[in-house]
Amino acid sequence: MKSSTKKVLIAEDSSVIQNLTRKILQMQNFDIHVAKNGEQVLQMLAKEDFDIILMDINMPVMDGMECARSIRDLEDTKKSGIPIIAITGNAKNFSMEDFRSAGINDFIPKPLNFDELVTKVNQYTNG
């Protein structure tokens, strides 16, 4: 049914959330890659393509908002157009407009609802 495995990049500095998210999505047959901060995301993106990025907003080195803006500014249109879903514990500090202006397509609040996570990842990768 699925043609090719979709590659998901999880940008999250909490290893607990990273591991949970990875397990949930691997059960759905996604190919999971992880980064601990926005800088690592950009380094990984320079080397390979991903179908979607799950982006924690509060990360060391480079936060999710800054990273999302950097991705949207990339020359490569395939990479600059990757769907980005913010994952944040303080969504109240941001409006959907804040996320959109940074180039973020959608967000999922923490604590993560894994059904919502799977639904949104499927929605954005099967476009």
TrEMBL record:
Annotated positions of the 4-aspartylphosphate modification: 56
InterPro entries according to UniProt: CheY-like_superfamily (IPR011006), Sig_transdc_resp-reg_receiver (IPR001789)
Entry keyword set: Phosphoprotein, Two-component regulatory system
Pfam family, one: Response_reg
Gene3D superfamilies in the cross-refs: 3.40.50.2300
Domain Response regulatory: start-end pairs: 7-125
Name the UniProt record assigns to this protein: Response regulator
Organism: Shiella aurantiaca
Lineage: Bacteria, Pseudomonadati, Bacteroidota, Cytophagia, Cytophagales
